[in-house]
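Key idea: predict the complex, not the pieces.
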Amino acid sequence: MTVPVIKLQGVSRQFKFFNLKDVSFELAPGQIMGLVGPNGAGKSTTIRILMGLIGADAGEVSVLGHSMPKDQAAIKQDIGFVSDEMRLYSNATLAWHMEFVASVYQTWDATYAAALLKRFNLHKEQRIKGLSHGEHVKALLLLALARRPRLLVLDEPTSGLDPVARQEILTELMDVLQDDRRSILFSSHNTLDVERISDQITFLDRGHIVDSRDKETFLERWRRLQLDVAGPRDLPRPAGVVDITASGHVATITTSDYTPALHAVYEQAGATVREVQRMSLEEIFVASVMHSRQEQGQ
Amino acid sequence: MHSDLAISQTDPRPMYLQIKEQIRHRIAVGDWSPGQEIPSIRTLAIGVRVSVITIKRAYLELEREGVIVTRQGKGSFVTEQAGIGQDLQGEELDSHLNAAAQIAGQLGLSSEELGARLRKAERHIKRKP
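Result:
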């Protein structure tokens, strides 16, 4: 069994107005994990804890086989971290930043950096203060990518970017995976990006994990069933069904655990299954967050 | 790059199915021939810009259907079976015919009427340059 790149076990942290509660997930080498959650769900807090930037009150954090934050110095070379809150020195040029990062990190790949400059259409003699938001994000990513770290941790890498810049960044992220020992964790509320490139997906809401599993299982298990019913009556709610909405002669069932056996359950209750629909990751995300909030009693 | 396969955002089918069908099509039309090596899961994932797990799922199902074979440490190949292209095209034809037969049933057409329509469609295609 390979050692997970990231392993969080029962991680909790209390703040005055926000609590991170019992967060656990794992990421294997060679994979991309998307961390999805509404604003204020705890995505950035989780990332800061696993980067060793803030401590946890309880739980275990291990990154690249090292316990965090205790061993963080040992693995700094192997992790590339980009957050959209980071700011480069506005009076310095991108070239100055590249030389600085190259002097600190032995793994700096100048050829790759030059290729990224071209692909991102950045000019290294330009001062940081002259960069647009998109260029600033691309500059940060370039500085992290060209070090070829084993683990990339990206907090909202595509937020506020135009579709072309987003596509350029997703392409570079996928390119990282040519080396199957390298991994990426990125947070986003753009479910389209997450659905496309993630192998593993973790949903976070109000400081706790709603669900965490591989993407194909997510997309395969969640379904919506459109039913025709004889009239208003109680429909069965087997395990996995998270929502039933009925009006008149139609009802919609949303389930997180679809199997064809579900048809028989509703047909026995006098309903006809008119259609079974797959759900997009965004629909799954919203449905599971709503369900989780209901279960938690708001 | 294998940008000759592509994911469509407006296609309601899941991504792994889109990939599967595009690979079957490549084989059916003879672009990928029996025994030919096909891109590794990781290479294709990077080329199409879609997660490794999605391509893996497509490959597993294609293996189960006997369309491709994966040899440990060697890579994935189109099955050696000669005529796999025609077989896949035949399957494609059958699935269209099934759909047609189903609609004909809903319309209450007899098999003679359905047959007549098929022949009419054939004549229509032959008339085209």
